[in-house]
Amino acid sequence: MASSASIRKQGLNNMPMALLPPIPLYRRLLRTHRKHLPKEMRLLGDEYIKSEFRSHRNIENPVHIIGFLSEWQMYAQKLEGDEWIGEKMDQGKIEKMSGEIIP
């Protein structure tokens, strides 16, 4: 169990949030891009989000759905916090990506 000191140290931004449903999360991501990214990055990011949400529209595996939504929600939280600037991507996540994503 986390002590109150460790909770204060982590801050409120790092506290886990309830998962947003797909459509509100999709809208939040697009708003976050609009607010925090330069135009070129925003256009690329918006297209990527749209294609990912379209391709996952008919997924029925609950574990896959929860993983998909939680990763996108963590991405939105990072962008909103500006801690991501200059951060390198986790090597474990890179290894899990398909060849279509990474040439």
TrEMBL record:
Belongs to the complex I LYR family. SDHAF3 subfamily. The lineage of its organism: Eukaryota, Fungi, Dikarya, Ascomycota, Pezizomycotina. Its main location: mitochondrion. It comes from Golovinomyces cichoracearum. Interacts with the iron-sulfur protein subunit within the SDH catalytic dimer. It comes from the Eukaryota. Plays an essential role in the assembly of succinate dehydrogenase (SDH), an enzyme complex (also referred to as respiratory complex II) that is a component of both the tricarboxylic acid (TCA) cycle and the mitochondrial electron transport chain, and which couples the oxidation of succinate to fumarate with the reduction of ubiquinone (coenzyme Q) to ubiquinol. Promotes maturation of the iron-sulfur protein subunit of the SDH catalytic dimer, protecting it from the deleterious effects of oxidants. May act together with SDHAF1. Keywords: Chaperone, Mitochondrion, Transit peptide. One of its GO terms (biological process) is succinate metabolic process. This is Succinate dehydrogenase assembly factor 3. GO terms for cellular component: mitochondrial intermembrane space; mitochondrial matrix. It is found in: Mitochondrion matrix.
